[in-house]
Design brief:
This protein has helices at 31-48, 66-76, 99-114, 123-136, 139-147, and strands at residues 5-7, 12-14, 16-19, 22-25, 58-59, 79-80, 85-87, 90-92. The protein is 46% helix and 16% strand. The protein is of the alpha+beta class and 148 residues long. It is elongated. It folds into two domains: 1-82, no CATH class; 89-148, no CATH class. The strands form four sheets. A two-stranded antiparallel sheet has the order 1-2. Strands 3-4 form a two-stranded antiparallel ribbon.
């Protein structure tokens, strides 16, 4: 129904990411695709009896004119959002080579590790714990979107 994007050096086709109630729809810019997204949102509301909170719905438009972006946001009844943004606690659309952008992730890891008594955990146990924390953070989302 919508044409997704090819991301990364391996050209992975990606149309959406979903985590709980936080969807991220990635698509080629086009009025027809916007109409399809609107139909999907309306169908979601009808079938499940849930309402879309349009105050939280944001549209990021890349490489299109401001007038097109404004009309697209009006069509979807949402606000225009500029990159970089934070999605699930991870910065998207920013230069991930900058140390300052990793600071929030480093602080999350430190806070989670701080709740454990690291002095009682072996070196191997610490490694397992750190890997588990890193795997629970959606870092691949940021990397794959940045690669395009």
């Amino acid at each position: 129904m919508i044409k997704g994007l090819e991301v990364g050096c391996k050209k992975v086709h990606l149309s959406h990411l979903q985590f709980a109630d936080d969807p991220l729809i990635l698509m080629t810019a086009g009025v027809g695709y916007l109409q399809q997204v609107k139909k999907i949102l309306l169908s979601f509301q009808s079938f499940l009896g849930l309402a879309i909170n349009y105050n939280k719905l944001g549209l990021i438009v890349i490489e299109k004119k401001d007038q097109w972006a404004d009309s697209a946001a009006q069509m979807l009844d949402c606000m225009l959002v500029q990159l970089p943004i934070t999605y699930l606690g991870v910065p998207l659309g920013a230069n991930m080579r900058r140390f300052s952008l990793w600071q929030c992730i480093i602080e999350k890891i430190q806070n989670r590790l701080g709740s454990w008594k690291t002095g009682c955990i072996s070196r191997a146990g610490r490694l397992v714990l750190i890997k588990a924390i890193l795997n629970s953070l959606p870092l691949t989302i940021s990397h794959s979107l940045k690669s395009q």
